[in-house]
Amino acid sequence: MDKKTYSAMVKELSPSSPIFMDIVKAFFGGGAICLFGEILRNFYIMRGIDSKSALTWVAITLILIAQLFTGLGIYDKAAKHLGAGANVPITGFANAVVSPAMEYHTEGLILGLGAKLFTIAGPVIVYGTAASVLAGLLYYFKEVLMK
Amino acid sequence: MSNRMGKQTVVFKNPPHIFAAAAVGGNEEGKGPLAKYFDKIFTDAYLGEASWEHAESKLQFHAVNMLLEKSGVPASNIDMMFGGDLINQCTSSYFAARDLALPLYGIYGACSTMGEGMQLAAMAVAGGFAKKTVAVTSSHFCSSEKQFRFPLEYGGQRPPTAQWTVTASGAVLITDGECIDTECPKITHITTGKIIDMGITDANNMGAAMAPAAADTLKAHFSDTGFKPSDYDLIVTGDLGMLGKELLKRLLLEYNIDIAPYYDDCGCMIYDIDRQDKHCGASGCGCSASVFGGYLFHLMQTRKIKKLLFMPTGALMSPLSCQQGDSISGIAHALRIEVN
Q1: Given pLDDT bands bounded at 50, 70 and 90, which one contains residue B181?
Q2: Which residues of A touch B198 (CB under 8 A)?
């Protein structure tokens, strides 16, 4: 049997992901996290914090909760069901940083925790920064030079 | 007088005996259908150690200790041990052998290592180079996740083809003939596997990567020895999982070999796959080793099965090779084990 025929056979027999349910769960899971963030924002504004600072406080609170839930071993269990709904919000980023910190502390603070802290989040930071530079350049050309 | 039969098979004129076997497992294995066949279940994933790697080493240490205890053979009578695992540079096996103070050959064949170890141990005994040898392998879910995938607490999703690395270790004592009371199971034939690569690159689909190698070794075994699938009470592969199991059956049908009535896979036996949510089943060096050391050896001792083809399967890759786009090769080593 050649590789192509085998690959087709593997594809035919492989169970596929329940895409529809995955999307529904991600939508409501991610939505719930964002709704909670909105509730927090209103709460902070009610407590007299200005709307811009309130957003920072929301981010801080969500990251803190995600870190705590990662440490307690709850976040990965929730993310197993929520998928992108748990990975895309800022809480997913917190989980992606804290989980390697927990995993690699056995290799020491420098070469373990320090070096491996961004193994998952690193690419997001690198390409996120690169993309923002690109966006900034495009904005510069459009707003400054084209006028 | 040649001990060889066909291209890939060795036949033993004086078959080495499997004197004893032992298996230890972790929490998930203790919740599975084979729980009662384990000699010991550790509910603490760390086994009292400070790291996952040390925990795995401890598993192997306990498996060999349990084996020696059950067989009544003192450690000083073991001539050599063949040990392997999945962790970088086989440290789990080396640390375990250091603590056991046994002469060791550290080996690597991914999840086929138990097959490799038992074959080498059997040949060492049959060749007169050792009287008593031990073959042992281990795997630990947490140390494997750390090395091959993501940190444990990372909120990722596993695709449905993924398999679950078992936390377990299995050990067997292979000797040149003396047995406790009843006659021991004997290793009569071994078939060495070739590395087969069908171009699978998905590290979350090990079953598909290994099934062609399993098919190749089985085909070679049947053609070298003249045995048929019906000459076996049970044909067991290592850790092909649900998907790999189906693929193997289909691949062999292409050669008009139907193993289905006699066939099962350790990766599909150790967990209640749906209830324990294990996707395509189990994998890992410790999978076939602990299923053999516990359940299968028990079946042979109680004569529920008398002719077993035991074939651990391995997926040959590293995180680095996968990242560089290399495909995942497979290997499978088969042993015919008989009891009167």
Answers
A1: low
A2: 1, 3, 6-7
**Within a domain: A99:** yes
Distances (CA, A) of B35 to A87, A115, B23, B29: 35, 40, 10, 6
Judged by DSSP in three states, A102 sits in helix
To test the contact with chain B by mutation, choose from A4, A6, A10 the residue with the greatest count of B C-beta atoms within 10 A, namely A10
- Interface list for chain A against chain B, based on CB atoms closer than 8 Å: 1, 3, 6-7, 9-10, 13-17, 22, 70-71, 73, 75-76, 78-80, 82-83, 86-87, 92, 95-96, 98-100, 102-104, 106, 119-120
pLDDT in tens, B37-53: 999 999 999 999 999 99
Determine, yes or no, domain membership for A87.
Answer: yes
Tell me if B21 sits within 8 A of B66, measured CB to CB.
no
In this structure, the answer to whether residues A72 and A38 fall within a common structural domain is: yes
Q: What is the ipTM of this complex?
A: 0.92
Task: pLDDT band for A89, please (50, 70, 90 cuts).
Answer: confident
Residues of A in contact with B27 (CB under 8 A): none
% of chain B surpassing 70 pLDDT: 98
3-class state of residue A69 by DSSP: helix
Confidence of residue A147 (pLDDT cuts 50, 70, 90): confident
Regarding whether A94 and A48 lie in a shared domain, the answer is: yes
Q: Which domain holds residue A83?
A: 19-116
Cβ distance of B150 and A99 shorter than 8 Å: yes
How many beta carbons lie within 10 A of that of residue B127, not counting itself? 11
Q: Spell out the domain ranges in chain B.
A: 14-175, 186-338
For residue B139 the two structure tokens come to 């795997």
> Token pair of B126, please?
């049959």
Pair type for strands B17-25 and B329-332? unpaired
Minimal CA separation from B213 to chain A, in Å: 12
Pick from B146, B157, B254: which is nearest to A103 by CB? Answer: B146
- For B110, the enclosing helix (H) or strand (E) is none
Cβ contact B157–A3 (<8 Å): no
Is the domain covering B186-338 a CATH 3.40.47.40 domain?
yes
Q: Are strands B40-41 and B80-84 parallel, antiparallel or unpaired?
A: unpaired
The domain total for chain A is 2
- pLDDT at site A146: 78
Same domain flag for A90 and A132: no
CATH of domain B14-175: 3.40.47.40
